[in-house]
Amino acid sequence: MIEGLHHIQLAMPTGCEDEAREFYCGVLHFTETPKPEMLLGRGGVWFEAGQVRVHLGVETPFTPAKKAHPGFQVASLDAVIQHLKTHGIEPRTDTDLPDIRRVYVNDPFGNRIELLELR
Fold it and tell me: Which strand (E) or helix (H) includes residue 17?
């Protein structure tokens, strides 16, 4: 029935597209992708990196996802942690799983993001 994951949708406040671009493109190295013309009036912004697609949509009233989160796999968690710190972002550690090392950060809107490395 399910063939794959097409995208992840996260919420953002109205008018914060530039802050989304700074974080998702500038820090996480996603690339912005154009939204279909019929959706442009809704606000928000779409990104992708490899096969991973993230859509940020405007939600009013806005409430960040504090527990629910995407988990983005990275090649080297140590390199990512160093990269985040150069951008002034201090990742939060959690208990590693037997086959996964992981940290958490928040996007500019308070949405929880997990960055993980498979062992």
Answer: helix 17-21
> How many C-beta neighbours within 10 Å does residue 26 have?
10
pLDDT at 96 over 90: no
The answer to whether 104 and 69 are in contact (CB under 8 A) is: yes
- Please give the backbone phi and psi of residue 2, each rounded to the nearest 5 degrees, phi first: -85, 130
Residue 12 neighbours by CB under 8 Å, 6+ apart:
20, 44, 45, 56, 57, 58, 59, 62, 109, 111
Phi (first) and psi of residue 23, to 5 degrees: -80, -55
Question: Nearest to residue 117, comparing CAs of 96, 89, 88?
Answer: 96
Contact call for residues 55 and 7 (beta carbons, < 8 A)? yes
Query: In this predicted model, what pLDDT tens digit does every residue of 83-94 receive, in sequence order?
Result: 999 999 999 998
What's the start-to-end Cα distance of the chain, in Å?
A: 30
pTM: 0.94
Residue-range domains of the chain with CATH: 8-118 (3.10.180.10)
